[in-house]
Amino acid sequence: MSSSSSFPEMANVTFKQFKVAYQKLLEFIVFLNVLALSGVVIVGFMSRLVGSPFSWYDEVASVGLAWLTYYGAALAAAKGAHITCPSIINMAPPSIRLPVALLAEAITIAFFVLLGYTGYQVVMILEGSTLVSLTSISLQLTQSVIPIGSALFIIAQLLRLPEVIESARGAGFIDHELEEAGINPDEARSNEGDSSFGQADSQAPHRA
């Protein structure tokens, strides 16, 4: 009995460890992207400042920005930090909240499956093509971020699925903007309720 009951606990711990490690990996990738893009921008600025700009600056910077967008989106998905409206969906009871949340997750994953497949086709079509300013860099490398970023996004969504289900069945979803700011969402909701009640009370006519 003890061994059978400990297996789900071990699996849960392993899952959480993998989720944390995956998020750390995405953070490292995004950090490298930011570092590289910052370096390119600084070098490009300095070259323009001295009057001899590099021909590859604009093209490489645009590729770096695209990479940062895709990998950053995957990191945001892993943290559940994409723009949402938790206060609206939290108004619904769990019986409605859960299917709506699962439908939203399914639509998101389906979109990135389509994007990843299309991106893979684009990469195959670009075989033999290179950057205009740097012919040593293949376009297959620069555009590989589309299928890779899509796959990373899908994995991030799947890893968050148990958390989404738990939130939908429980007290509701948390506003991650408040969480990042160090504000307790429950306290914020109660303060909003108190302030609105106070305003309504102050606007009510006073009787002598």
TrEMBL record:
<dbReference type="Pfam" id="PF04290">
    <property type="entry name" value="DctQ"/>
</dbReference>
<feature type="transmembrane region" description="Helical">
    <location>
        <begin position="137"/>
        <end position="159"/>
    </location>
</feature>
<keyword id="KW-1133">Transmembrane helix</keyword>
<comment type="similarity">
    <text>Belongs to the TRAP transporter small permease family.</text>
</comment>
<feature type="transmembrane region" description="Helical">
    <location>
        <begin position="25"/>
        <end position="48"/>
    </location>
</feature>
<keyword id="KW-1003">Cell membrane</keyword>
<keyword id="KW-0813">Transport</keyword>
<dbReference type="InterPro" id="IPR007387">
    <property type="entry name" value="TRAP_DctQ"/>
</dbReference>
<keyword id="KW-0472">Membrane</keyword>
<comment type="function">
    <text>Part of the tripartite ATP-independent periplasmic (TRAP) transport system.</text>
</comment>
<keyword id="KW-0997">Cell inner membrane</keyword>
<dbReference type="InterPro" id="IPR055348">
    <property type="entry name" value="DctQ"/>
</dbReference>
<feature type="compositionally biased region" description="Polar residues">
    <location>
        <begin position="193"/>
        <end position="202"/>
    </location>
</feature>
<comment type="subunit">
    <text>The complex comprises the extracytoplasmic solute receptor protein and the two transmembrane proteins.</text>
</comment>
<dbReference type="GO" id="GO:0005886">
    <property type="term" value="C:plasma membrane"/>
</dbReference>
<feature type="region of interest" description="Disordered">
    <location>
        <begin position="182"/>
        <end position="208"/>
    </location>
</feature>
<protein>
    <recommendedName>
        <fullName>TRAP transporter small permease protein</fullName>
    </recommendedName>
</protein>
<dbReference type="GO" id="GO:0022857">
    <property type="term" value="F:transmembrane transporter activity"/>
</dbReference>
<dbReference type="GO" id="GO:0015740">
    <property type="term" value="P:C4-dicarboxylate transport"/>
</dbReference>
<keyword id="KW-0812">Transmembrane</keyword>
<feature type="transmembrane region" description="Helical">
    <location>
        <begin position="60"/>
        <end position="78"/>
    </location>
</feature>
<feature type="domain" description="Tripartite ATP-independent periplasmic transporters DctQ component">
    <location>
        <begin position="38"/>
        <end position="161"/>
    </location>
</feature>
<feature type="transmembrane region" description="Helical">
    <location>
        <begin position="98"/>
        <end position="117"/>
    </location>
</feature>
